[in-house]
């Protein structure tokens, strides 16, 4: 019984001590400050608005949006993106038409208009900002991988 | 009835017996200022945000999310900036039309958010037609084409503004719908302004 009490006491002291250490410690994190204090918020990054297509990191990647979309309404009533990107208007607007896969239902049948499952553009397509990455991006393009395997292999 | 009319006709068609010409003309002048000023003050009161939002608070809430309410330079639009002409004659004409809206208010034809949503498309169309007909006059009270600097606009904006807008084929409202309020059901409406 006495042994158990001692154990509990020692454990509590250890836990409290550990908490104290963590709280005062400036842990190396991405949050710019000690864990027990509210870090100052970073500035808002600027949204890219140059209308220049970015390279896709891999063939199936949904293309990014090279312009601002502030206040674009996409809901049951209206889809602001389709004001320029729908098949009907791309000649006048010279915006890229949404790809043909967006007109297919899940069974591969073509529909007259955009399929409901592809209606909400921002589910896949996003704007880009000038925010500096917190971590270095270690993505390697498939072409680089192929090149490496060809030269380094057999 | 005829006697009454004749009595007053005699009073206003004869020279005054008790009041001097100076008193009467000065009195008329002062009363003119009071009535004219009072009329304009009352009309301007109906142009204030406080007056509009005393009923249209839901639309005010929508406006608050847009660039016409808050932006980097702090220039903002109030309801009347866009919905009431700034020229006096046009303003009077619009205010006379608005008497119908007072009737709608009295009868409660749009007294709930549900009733408003049901009519949102119709009401939006009224405003689109009005702005189409006057070449987006209320937009242009602030956004003057002659002073637009294409070099600081985005490429897409320049493409549209330097062709369709410059040539007069299109006017602001053709493309810029729903910039201060949520859009209604837009099925069948051409949002790119091609029609």
Explain the overall architecture:
The complex is a heterodimer of chains A (154) and B (195). With 154 residues, chain A is mainly α. Chain A has a domain at 46-132: Orthogonal Bundle (Flavocytochrome C3, Chain A, domain 2), CATH 1.10.1130. Helix content of chain A is 27%, strand content 0%. Chain A is built from four helices and no strands. Chain A has helices at residues 2-24, 82-85, 90-93, 142-152. The radius of gyration of chain A is 26 Å and the shape is extended. The model of chain A has no long low-confidence stretch (mean pLDDT 84). The longest helix of chain B is centred in the N-terminal third of the chain and has 25 residues, at 21-45. Chain B has a domain at 110-179. Chain B contains ten helices and no strands. Chain B is mostly helical and 195 residues long. Chain B has helices spanning 2-13, 21-45, 49-53, 57-63, 79-83, 88-107, 113-133, 137-140, 155-165, 172-175. Chain A binds chain B through residues 49-51, 67-68, 70-71, 73, 76-78, 80, 82-84, 89, 92-94, and chain B through 65-67, 154-156, 159, 178-179, 182-186, 190-192, 194.
Layout: helices, strands, pairs:
The complex is a heterodimer of chains A (154) and B (195).
Chain A: H1 2-24, H2 82-85, H3 90-93, H4 142-152
Chain B: H1 2-13, H2 21-45, H3 49-53, H4 57-63, H5 79-83, H6 88-107, H7 113-133, H8 137-140, H9 155-165, H10 172-175
């Amino acid at each position: 019984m006495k042994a158990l009490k001692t154990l509990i006491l020692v454990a509590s002291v250890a836990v409290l001590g550990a908490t104290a250490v963590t709280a005062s410690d400036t842990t190396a994190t991405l949050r710019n400050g000690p864990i027990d204090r509210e870090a100052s918020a970073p500035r808002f990054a600027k949204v890219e608005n140059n209308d220049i297509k970015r390279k896709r990191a891999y063939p199936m990647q949904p293309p990014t949006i090279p312009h601002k979309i502030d206040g674009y309404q996409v809901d049951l009533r209206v889809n602001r993106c389709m004001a320029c990107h729908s098949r009907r208007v791309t000649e006048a607007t010279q915006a890229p038409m949404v790809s043909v896969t967006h007109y297919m239902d899940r069974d591969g049948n073509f529909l007259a208009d955009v399929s409901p499952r592809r209606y909400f553009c921002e589910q896949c397509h996003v704007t880009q900002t000038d925010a500096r990455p917190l971590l270095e991006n270690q993505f390697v393009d498939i072409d680089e991988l192929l090149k490496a395997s060809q030269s380094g292999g057999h | 009835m005829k006697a009454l009319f004749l009595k007053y006709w005699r009073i206003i068609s004869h020279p005054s017996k008790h009041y001097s010409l100076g008193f009467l003309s000065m009195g008329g002048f002062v009363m003119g200022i009071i009535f004219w000023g009072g009329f304009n003050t009352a009309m301007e009161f109906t142009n204030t945000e406080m007056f509009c939002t005393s009923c249209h608070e839901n639309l005010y809430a929508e406006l608050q999310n847009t660039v016409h309410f808050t932006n980097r330079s702090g220039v903002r639009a109030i309801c009347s900036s866009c919905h009431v002409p700034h020229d006096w004659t046009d303003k009077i004409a619009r205010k006379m039309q608005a008497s119908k809206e007072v009737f709608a208010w009295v009868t409660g034809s749009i007294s709930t958010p549900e009733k408003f949503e049901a009519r949102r498309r119709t009401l939006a169309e009224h405003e689109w037609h009005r702005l189409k007909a006057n070449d987006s006059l209320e937009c242009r009270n602030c956004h003057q084409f002659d002073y637009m600097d294409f070099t600081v606009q985005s490429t897409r904006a320049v493409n549209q503004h330097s062709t369709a807008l410059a040539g007069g084929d299109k006017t602001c409202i053709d493309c810029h719908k729903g910039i201060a309020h949520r859009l209604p059901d837009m099925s069948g409406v051409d949002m790119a302004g091609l029609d």
